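Consider the tokenized backbone below.
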């Protein structure tokens, strides 16, 4: 199930990345929203790489090439953290009338800390005998690694969802296509939070001895992840290409 879902996500995010790159090139001389354009491009590329590495056949090929089991999972998870942080920076730049340097710097530091923790925990985990998945929830190192990643994803997804919904309400009268895109992106971020809660909840329930069937978890999580990626990619691309959005003009209202 992972292959078709993340394969479709990889195709979709490659298209949105191309659209994002074209928009950034056409507006390269404009000083407004420069930070958000770069953040959107970073998010699109990171999401494409993460989706690609989540395809089992691609992941196996990368692991064989690197001669290291589960290095593809580490790369995909770091890409997902970069994707989430880029979305946070993008929404912040849209929302406020002045550049929020402190908020942006804080999120850059956060993604660096989380990525560093994931690398450190990856090196500690026994990836020769255990995969970095809920199938090996019995391993303490695997649980800690996954909960670190999922906790960061849930926090970022919640912020993006709330900020996108609030910004959509503020710009609804100015541009319906842009506001609709923000609503779709907010829904996608909510799916991302549900994905993190589903996998994280399984890990915690397993530790307490009350986990639900792993087959159910393996069926739900990829669907939630796919909905997250698809909605966020499409929603933010709709907002970016819309010519009617002027979120900074309403920044004081949101």
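A designed sequence for it:
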């Amino acid at each position: 199930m992972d292959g078709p879902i993340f394969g479709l996500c990889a195709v979709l995010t490659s298209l949105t990345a191309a659209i994002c790159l074209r928009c950034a090139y056409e507006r390269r001389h404009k000083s407004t929203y420069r930070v958000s354009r770069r953040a959107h491009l970073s998010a699109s590329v990171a999401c494409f790489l993460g989706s690609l590495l989540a395809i089992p056949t691609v992941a196996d090929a990368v692991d064989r090439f690197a001669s290291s089991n589960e290095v593809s999972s580490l790369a995909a998870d770091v890409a997902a953290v970069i994707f989430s942080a880029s979305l946070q920076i993008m929404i912040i730049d849209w929302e406020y009338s002045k550049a929020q340097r402190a908020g942006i710097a804080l999120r850059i530091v956060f993604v660096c800390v989380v990525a560093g923790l994931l690398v450190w925990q990856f090196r500690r985990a026994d990836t020769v005998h255990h995969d970095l998945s809920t199938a090996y929830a019995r391993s303490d190192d695997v649980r800690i690694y996954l909960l670190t990643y999922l906790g960061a994803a849930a926090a970022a997804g919640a912020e993006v969802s709330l900020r996108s919904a609030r910004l959509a309400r503020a710009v609804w009268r100015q541009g319906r296509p842009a506001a609709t895109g923000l609503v779709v992106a907010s829904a996608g971020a909510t799916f991302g939070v549900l994905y993190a809660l589903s996998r994280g909840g399984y890990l915690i329930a397993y530790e307490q001895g009350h986990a639900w069937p792993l087959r159910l978890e393996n069926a739900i999580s990829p669907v939630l992840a796919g909905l997250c990626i698809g909605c966020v990619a499409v929603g933010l691309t709709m907002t970016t290409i819309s010519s009617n959005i002027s979120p900074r003009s309403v920044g004081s209202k949101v």
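Confidence is low (pLDDT under 50) at residues 244-254.
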